[in-house]
Amino acid sequence: MIIRVRTQKAAGDGSALQPGDDTSMVPYTANRSLNGELSGQHDDDLDCRERANAVGSPEIPATVLRQVVETSLAGTCIADREGRIVFANASLLAMWGYDLQDVIGQPVDFLWLAGGEGPDCIGCALSAGQWSGTVTARRRDSSLFGARLSVNTVPGPRAADLWLLVSCMDVTAQRKAEDAPGHPRSLARTVASMPARFVDPAGLDPAIDTSLEDLGRACGACRASFSLFNDARTLVGTTHEWCRPERESRRGEFQTLFARDLPWWVVRILEGETVLVDGTSREGRPRREEREFLKRHGVAATLLIPLHLQRAVVGFVGFDRSTGGPGFADEDVALLSAAVQIIASALDRKQSEYVFRESEDLYQVVLDAITDTVTVVDTDLTLLLANDAFVAWCEELGLATDVVGKNLFVALPFLPPAARQQYERVIRTGRPLTSERALRFDDRIVVIREMLIPIFEQGNVGRIITVSRDITAQREVEDLKSKAYSQVERNMEQFALLADHIRNPLQAIMGRAELIDDAATTEKIRQQVQRINGIIDQLDERWAESRKLSMFWRKYS
Question: Could you report the per-residue pLDDT of 78-125, keeping only the tens digit for each?
Fold first, then answer.
């Protein structure tokens, strides 16, 4: 509903409006009588009717508007364009503790902290047309309280007319009621604030203690406890607890359980059921068992919520209410179950982190024992792990040794673009890849042999293990061996040719000896030629054996 009001011309001091001016609603002014009558009322109603006929839409008479605003439960005041109060209803005066004459003509923002201490509500409303929010209000006795404000600009019948309509409610009393023990909103806010406590796994124990206290107070309990079973389910102990001063603490107490004679409530908890014991009969159980349970613990009602870790019940969180106190409503049970789930999630996260760190430490020990350089990178090629051999290699090359968390190509800036392509190929295909490459680093040439091994996570390559070895010295030895083998083969080939070259002259000598008439001389020459041929035959056999040995060396060395 839009209320059309007409601006009043301020008096000389700007603190009041004068009757008889052009108005369609006369607010609280110095000329307003204490019994609530407005001067010039009939003239104003007549002006309203005349303007209604002129613009085609009826104006609300001042008397009606006054009655509507004064009967409002919200504190309401109207200020002029300069922000000075010209109207205030009884609710606002009672809320702030002022009399009417105390507020008329005052800047409206004197009711709350402003001017550097709070928001510029009036400025925002004048620029945007409205403003709403919570401010810290200041009463007449200087006490502070929270106020929910709604500031709107209200246009008048003329373009120059503009009023500020301020509506406010005291939210402090509402918050106190909601913060009272047992109030649903109090418990809901407590549960909503819990996740922020469990961000740091190192502060898990203090977070559980604080949460138990807040939950216990919010739900009106006299005790909130956190209990765990041992692995064999033969013991249950209270590890964390909050209780009121009149209650005896059970923190650190353990109860022995017997597998053949478990208490009925433990059986239900181990089956994952929430147990609510308040003396009423459920599922055919005799009320006597519940009465004995409550009498033994000295409470009127108990709520036991199972704690699940990795689908197994490892304990429970209990809430006790004193004798004569109210029971646990369904809404309380749902909110407290959500709180227990938050604690279970934090425990599960810490346990997973512990297992991960333990396995990571084990992997690190294994990796450090390997003489080859080993790194683990993710799909963004960020180094997640690096063994001691890799760190020592970086130190030898004069590179930074704090490589974990850095990009691989930042840690090893001399890697060629082909290396990135190989990683991308492994990520894309999911197949391992072995390669060798020569890297130039300053005036050195380093030969690296590396193997890229993909690690799959949920069916996709999530990480890549790189095993690298500096084979520069090995490559140099292999080059020397290859050169030596080549030289030996060349020498053997030359030796085979030399043997042929020796046999040809021997045949010529033997032919010449056959032409000599001296038989003794011929026989002597023939014997020497045969002796030389025998030596050459022995050399040929040794050459053949050497040839086989050379081929064996090439194949297996």
Answer: 888 788 888 888 888 988 999 988 899 998 888 887 655 556 788 888
CB 157 within 8 A of CB 4: yes
Residue 467 contacts residue 453 (beta carbons within 8 Å) = yes
Write down the pTM of the prediction.
0.41
Contact residues for 37 (Cβ-Cβ < 8 A; gap 6+): none
Helix, strand or coil, per DSSP, at residue 200? coil
Q: Which of 27-41, 285-299, 301-315, 433-447 has the lowest mean pLDDT?
A: 27-41
Tens-place pLDDT, residues 410-458? 998 888 888 999 999 999 999 999 988 887 766 777 788 889 999 898 8
Closest listed residue to residue 537, CA positions, set 477, 481, 496, 507: 496
Q: How confident is the model at residue 1 (pLDDT cuts 50, 70, 90)?
A: very low
**Helix axes 204-218 and 330-368, enclosed angle (nearest 10):** 180
The label of the residue with tokens 């110095």 reads 30
CB 242 within 8 A of CB 213: yes
CA distance 514 to 176: 139
Total residues found in the chain within this entry: 557
534 contact partners, CB below 8 Å, separation of at least 6? none
d(CA 317, CA 339): 10
Radius of gyration of the chain (CA): 49
How many C-beta atoms surround the C-beta of residue 307 within 10 A?
20
- DSSP labels, 269-338: HHTT--EEESS---TT--HHHHHHHHHHHT-SEEEEEEEEETTEEEEEEEEEE-TT-----HHHHHHHHH
Q: What are all long-range contacts of 169-172, with beta carbons under 8 Å and residues at least 24 apart?
A: 169/74, 169/75, 170/75, 170/95, 170/137, 170/145, 170/146, 171/134, 171/146, 171/147, 172/145, 172/146
pLDDT at 19 over 60: no
Enumerate the β-bridge partners of residue 229: 236
Question: Of 398, 395, 359, whose CA–CA distance to 376 is shortest?
Answer: 359
CA end-to-end span of the chain = 99
pLDDT band at residue 317 using 50, 70 and 90 as cut-offs: very high
Q: What are the tokens at 309?
A: 């870790």
pLDDT digits (tens, 9 = 90+) for 506-537: 778 888 788 887 888 888 888 888 888 888 77
Measured between alpha carbons, how far is 516 from 199 in angstroms, rounded to an integer? 114
